[in-house]
Amino acid sequence: ISPSGRRMGKGHQQRGAPTGKRLLFPGRRGSPRGLPGGGGATGAQRFLLGLFMHAWLWVASGSYAQVFNLSLSVDEGLPPDTLVGDIRAGLPAAQQQEGGGFFLSEDSDDSPLLDDFHVHPDTGIIRTARCLDRERRDHYSFVAATLLGAVVQVEIRVNDVNDHSPSFPRDSLKLDVSELSPPGTAFRLPGAHDPDAGLFSTQGYTLVQPSDLPEDPAGPFFQLRYGTPGSPQASSPLEPLDLVLLRRLDREAAAAHELHIEAWDGGRPRRTGHLRVELRVLDENDNPPVFEQGEYRAAVREDARPGAEVCRVRATDRDLGPNGHVRYSLRARQALGPLGDAAYFTVEELSGVVRVQRPLDREEQAWHQLVVEARDGGAEPEVATVRVSIAVLDVNDNPPAIHLLFLTEGGAARVSEGAALGDYVARVSVSDADGDPEQEEEAFGEPGVGLGGGSISLSLEGGDGAFALRSGGSPGVFFLCVEGPLDRESRDLYDLRLVATDAGSPPLSTEETLLLRVADLNDQPPLFSREHYLASVSEAAAPGTAVVWVSASDADEAGTDHARLRYSLVHLPVRCNPEGVWPSAAECGPSFTIDPETGVISTVRSLDREVQEAVELRVVAQDLGEPPLTATCLVSITVDDVNDNEPIFRRQVYNATLAEHAPVGHCFLQVKASDADAGLYGFVEYSLYDGFQSYDASPAFQIHPHDGRICVSQDIDRERDPATYDLLVKAKDGGGLSAQAFVRVEMEDVNDNEPVFNPSTYVMSISGQTQPGTEIINVLATDRDSGIYGTVAYELIPGDLSSLFTIDSTSGIIYLTSTLSHLESTTLLLMVCARDGGGLTSVVNADITIHILQTTLAPAEFERPKYTFSVYEDVPENSPVGTVKAKESLNSSEPIFYRISSGDLDRKFSIHPWLGVIQTQKPLDHETQPVVVLTVQAQLGSLPAYSSTEVNITVIDVNDNHPVFPKASDEVQIPQTTLPGTALYLARAQDKDSGKNGFIRYTIASQNPSIFAIDSGLGAVFLNESLGSHVPRKCTLTLAAQDLGVPSRASLLVLTVAIEEQEQSPSLAFENLIYQVEVSECLSLMTQILQIQAYPLGPQRPSSRLLYSLEPSTDSAVFGVRPDTGWIYLRRQLDYESTQTYNFRAFAWIPEDRLSQNVSTSVIVHVLDENDNSPTFLHDVLFLKVEESPVPQGVIGKITAIDRDSGKNGQLSYFLLSDGKFFKMNPNTGEFISWVALDHELQGHHQVTVLVTDHGSPPRNATMVVYVSVTDINDNSPYFPQCLPGEELHVKVLEGQPVNMLVTTVFAKDFDEGNNAEVVYSGKSSFLFVFISPRTDKISVL
Fold first, then answer.
1. What Pfam families does its record include (predicted)?
2. What span, in angstroms and rounded, lies between the C-alpha atoms of 447 and 450?
3. Where residue 22 falls among pLDDT bands split at 50, 70, 90?
4. Contact criterion met (CB below 8 Å) for 912 and 897
5. What are the Cα distances from residue 246, in Å, to 174, 257, 874?
6. Is the pLDDT of residue 792 over 90?
7. Strand, coil or helix: what is 1250?
């Protein structure tokens, strides 16, 4: 610190105080800005100081003031409170001892002097107020004046220290430099900046060599060039900074360089900054292509096709990009012939592959020489050349020739199967147009490459050793001879191949095919296809009916007498039925004959299976050769029975029990029907239908068509699906006759349902004074199973403070086990789990929210935690159901109010608000809702505490529903051959009532004639007598269904039984009486879904062509059928939501047989649902209003969505996506529940997003927004914000004030809205007369 002071010249004084300065007055130490007393001075004090200051300036302006200079300096970065100097040092020694302090003047109001320095106004000592930064401010100036008028001009200079490092504008820099840049080229770099000054600023740059890189022997590539400090040419002393290239770059040697530049200052130690320069060397075309070889030599065959590869030349260029891309071309040379060498070849521009361009001929030119150029892609391309020598290789291109001369009779290619070994068949000679094969080896070392020809070899292929070649003595002459035995029946044609091969390389060969036939001799007897034929014929066959076709063959040559056959029949001894009537000779005589030409055996008279069940015949076949040869076979014919017996079930009604969820494929019952007929007519097939008179297949069951086993075909849920299934089983024989039986399946319950809480959320309030043992609330869970599986036990899930409660495992009542007085007002959350008798637990546990209120009054408590009432469903509206009652505490006189908080969505009940009487307010229906569970809350006056109880109301059934038949009349058709005891019809009526009111008994009210009976429990109608000729063709019955209620109710059904006459059996039959198939609604058009097939009955030819068609109807229009194959396919898109089942008929007929009848079958297509519909809300947006209340409001609304899909695809669940703090959602019912108290003043509006999702795979969902408006009630008192409640507001008034003078204004606030927030003022007068305006909130003096 170097203070210095001097006078402004001896005897020279400056007139007046310095201008442009702000004066600061002496004051106490520590006062801000040097003001006496700090900021606590009153306005009067400030006024007096201002007057004093003006007076002092007026006196000073009239005389010459003494002005002295004081220069001080301090280093930057020193800690606060560092001594800088003393203002008195700038005064003469005589005045330094004078007291009185200083007046300070800054340059302007925003001067940082007193922010950066502490100037003591009494002593004049200057200290730093904070750490100084020269780079922020390097100079300070102010004026100090004594009370005697002496003025000191103080200058403070901040000395620089080396506290900054040089820094470049960025850490790294990228440069692109051409490899052809000459040495000396300079590249401008950004300079470094150092905020320090002088020697501490940037002094120079250094190019740093990385320590991990070895030194280049040729020296560095770059050096730095920059100015010198103090250079006046640049804005900075060291600028410009250039990177200078010292020697040429070579991209092929190094494609990139990384340089590190260091900037340093002059400090000790010096500070540095760094810049990383990434220099990329740009490629230039400075390298020519270079071939891998100095000369290329290749060879190619003269038969090489144009485009054949000869060789590949390859040149490389070290440059990059287009400079390194090499392209090839041929240089034209002077040709010796009409075409140059380059005309025969071409080179691929990119790959360098040399290929043949036109056909070659070695005899014309054996050598070709080419010059290939390689040119790179630079702007001024570099070119290289190479010579390619190509030799043309000779090939053997003339095959030998074969000449054939047959030596047989007539010169034909034929030999007798009786020819002897060694007999000549043909003379063979060979020749070759090629010359002498002796050739010299070519220049490339290929041996034996000449014209080929010369010695020729001949070989024989085929014949399996039956023929051979023998030498003819002369060169090139051979003979074809018989070498083995010949048999025309084993082989009548020989495919011989003569192969002549020359000695060329590669050798050429010629093939000559010789088809040699073997002439026939009659040496083979006839042969039947089977030794024993089995056939059958219906006993109803007419004379002349073809029965069987026997066939024999002769291995001799076809079309000759050796192979022509004649058939004859030899009758064996007749075997007649011994149990029948003794037959006459005519009845047991010949019954069959045979056609001598075709071998078809047919009947010659009528047959009788009861007289003769089987016939055996012997057939003789003889050829026309010399001598003739014969053969025999045995034919056994069975006489088939006609279809004159119907199937018969052992029982007409079957009863079975089955556990629900039995696995698919489980078989639980076998029905059996027998048919006295034989063969196809005695073969019984079973089919199963859903209902006694229905042609719809049962979706839940299927029957094995052959053994009658009834099995499960889908999962059955007793709680979801019917508990009883009525099934119809039909047994049909191969002739179309059928019988039927009835099956009733009772479903047994298994434990497949978890307990479900309803409701699952409970909210209540209790007092902190509630005594242990008090019943708090009753939770309820139900299980859809029955018996022990439907019995529910409850348990409390451990949690925070759950030990204060216990639960009755049987009733679900929660009891308090400990006192609550030690707890403050809080909210407890309990969870209860329900478990059924089979061990299954509830998926969603019950949530119980208990608000504990520490009030002086305990909440009203119900006398019972659970009430049970019952009411008949036919009671009139406003009928009382029961009364609930809550008791208030002994020290309370508040009334108790009751309300129904949840469980009554349809508003069928009401409760008297203070009597607790529950009444009906809408009609009840036991069939719609047999049990209603209500939650009733009791609130003591306006206290926030409340209690709740559960009210179970059982709606008792009355007999108010009649039994209902599906239709008033029906008709059933039965054949005339129906046996007594056969079940004909199942009457099914439904009664919506329960118990005895819904139990139905069936009777026949009237019938004509009286030949029918009915099972009173099942409703099955049976035939009691045979249907003789006296029975009319239509019988009418009146069936009655009567319940057991008092009084009972009944309904009638008129049933018409039509008796069909026996008709001629059709000539066709379908494989199934009913075809059923299940298909997805997403099936694409033209997809084949089912094949129907019919077959002819009786002696129809199996090869008869059948045609199929569909009966025109609305259902069949969706499908089509292939007329030839019977495949049914999809023509229109299916939609399960529109139609679930299609029922139509299909027909089959034989177009060639005009007399035959067409047959039909039923086709049932069940459409399976897919999850193709998303849930949709009934409203896009829902607005709800609810009053604010100190207690939760429970259910305040219901969200409803629909899904057109079925099953799990249409099962919906609701969830909240937001605002779970105030509201909850019942996931099953969509009930929107307020589970905490709502306060309009805290939050008047709530926006909630609701998600609904189905249970499909993958699931579909939708969202909607619910807006909840919390309406205001007058639950807040006005308050004065000027003073806290219970305190007083004090206002001072000077005495002597005039009347009506305004004293003060008060105002009050109310957090409510509207009229509830409008404030009216009133007041009481004391001994001072004060008036309070009721509207203007002003207080004035009276």
1. Cadherin
2. 9
3. very low
4. no
5. 19, 14, 114
6. yes
7. strand
User: Which residue's structure tokens are 């219906």?
Assistant: 538
Cβ(652)–Cβ(673) under 8 Å? no
Cis, peptide link before residue 269, omega less than 30° from 0: yes
Mean pLDDT for 887-892 is: 73
Give per-residue pLDDT as tens, 598-649.
888 988 888 877 677 888 899 999 998 888 889 999 999 988 777 767 888 8
Gap between the Cα atoms of 437 and 439, Å rounded:
6
Q: Do 201 and 253 form a contact (C-beta atoms < 8 A)?
A: no
The per-residue pLDDT for range 808-820, each reduced to its tens digit, is 898 888 888 988 8
> Alpha-carbon distance 174 to 856, whole Å?
82
Give me the pLDDT at residue 879, please. 94
Render pLDDT for 357-392 as a digit per residue (tens, 0 to 9).
999 888 788 889 999 999 998 888 989 999 999 998
Residue 802, phi then psi, degrees to nearest 5: -70, -20
Q: What is the pLDDT of residue 575?
A: 58
Query: Which secondary structure element, helix H or strand E, spans residue 128, and what is its range?
Result: strand 125-128
DSSP secondary structure letter of residue 1200: -
Quote the pLDDT of residue 447.
37
At 11, list the tokens: 């005897």
- Closest C-alpha to 1266, from 1251, 1276, 1279, 1253: 1251
Q: Are 706 and 748 in contact (CB under 8 A)?
A: no
CA distance 590 to 1070: 37
| DSSP strands (E only) in 266-325 | 272-282, 290-291, 295-301, 309-312, 315-316
Task: Give the tens place of pLDDT for each residue, 1056-1108.
Answer: 998 877 655 556 788 777 888 999 999 999 999 999 988 876 554 445 678 99
Predicted local confidence at residue 802, as pLDDT: 87
Count H helices, E strands: the chain?
A: 4, 99
If you write DSSP's letter for every residue of 905-971 in order, what string do you get? TT--EEE-TTT-EEEE-S---TTT-SEEEEEEEEEETT-S-EEEEEEEEEEE--S----B-SSSEEE
**Order of all β-strands in the sheet with 1302-1305:** 1302-1305, 1338-1341, 1330-1332
Distance from C-alpha of 1074 to C-alpha of 1065, rounded to nearest angstrom: 19
SS3 content of the chain, % helix, strand, coil (to 5): 5, 40, 50
d(CA 481, CA 994): 105
Q: Residue 200 carries which DSSP code? A: G
For residue 1079, what pLDDT is reported? 92
* Residue written as token pair 């010695």: 455
1018 closest CA partner among 1040, 996, 1001, 1005: 1001
pLDDT higher than 80, residue 35? no
* Rounded Cα–Cα distance for residues 1019 and 997 (Å): 17
Classify residue 1256 as exposed, middle or buried by CB count within 10 Å of its CB (0-12, 13-18, 19+): buried
pLDDT tens track for 154-176:
999 998 888 888 999 999 999 99
What would the two tokens of residue 426 be?
A: 């043909």
Q: Closest Cα partner for 550 from 576, 522, 572, 570?
A: 570
Closest C-alpha among 264, 128, 262 to residue 196: 264
The predicted model scores a pTM of 0.35
Closest C-alpha to 325, from 269, 287, 297, 358: 287
Pairing of strands 592-594, 151-159: unpaired
